[in-house]
Amino acid sequence: MISGILLAAGESRRMGSLKPLLPYGRSTIIEEIAQTLLESELDEVRVVLGHRQDEIARALTGKALHLVVNYHYQEGMLSSIQCGISSLSNDIEAVLLALVDQPFIFQAMINLLIERYKRGGKGIVIPIYKGKRGHPIIISMKYREEILNLDKEHGLRELMYAHPDDILEVESESELILQDLDYHEDYLKELERLKGSRSR
Fold first, then answer.
1. Of 158, 167, 107, the residue nearest 137 (C-alpha)
2. Domain boundaries, the chain
3. Fewer Cβ within 10 Å of end Cβ, the chain: N or C?
4. Is this structure's pTM higher than 0.85?
5. Which CATH superfamily is 2-199 part of?
6. What does the H/E/C string look like for the chain?
């Protein structure tokens, strides 16, 4: 089984407003990406909440999601990854880590990463665009204890550095895997891109 872990615990400081609940398409950023994950070939989807957890949880009411609360979210993204992984049952073989600030990630990309993981023989699967690594990524739970003991200063990079021979890079046709919505300007540009893609 492969579990999707959607990281949505941050404070959205650089955005200036609560990023997960910003309007996107016909709903909000977090509803958009949660629905994409649910409609993919993932076996289950978990959402790690933290900052203003109750508001975000209400937006997800009715969806078949497992909500997990990271009470130490101010310690950074790794703490949310560790929180999500700690909540997994032992029958989960791998996790796909998805960022809440990438609502534009396509279901096809998620399914491609899952397919490559299942037949690629590698424990870490990362999408790349023109040689640059992006998100989401898949990690085998053979690294579970190693991830739970990673240094918060270095984060997942430490895992990548330790196992370069166990990484499979999957070429993406879209540069969207490299992008995220950190700042309000990024959000406005994405709304324009979304508007343009729907008018074609």
1. 167
2. 2-199
3. C
4. yes
5. Spore Coat Polysaccharide Biosynthesis Protein SpsA; Chain A (3.90.550.10)
6. CEEEEEEECCCCCCCCCCHHHCEECCEEHHHHHHHHHHCCCCCEEEEEECCCHHHHHHHCCCCCCEEEECCCHHHCHHHHHHHHHHCCCCCCCEEEEEECCCCCCCHHHHHHHHHHHHHHCCCEEEEEECCEECCCEEEEHHHHHHHHCCCCCCCCHHHHHHCHHHEEEEECCCHHHHCCCCCHHHHHHHHHHHHHHHHC
